[in-house]
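Bumping with the actual sequence this time:
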Amino acid sequence: MKNFFKKHWLRMAGILVGALVGYIYYHYVGCLSGTCPITSNPYRMMIYGALVGYLLFDLFSSDKKTKDAKQDIQQ
């Protein structure tokens, strides 16, 4: 379990930051009329934000397999 958190800490941080930013976006910018499918509901916006946060933070995470593959290509 400890290894899992060490390996995926950046992705989990992305989920948490994304969900927080999603809620903040809903609170300050969200749709007042209720006709916007994503931004009118705080839960949907938090899920959308968590997904975007995960994908964004995943760009900066490095895996050993990826490093090994890049080294093989360069050689």
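The tokens above came from a reply further down the thread. Residues 2-28 form the longest helix (27 residues).
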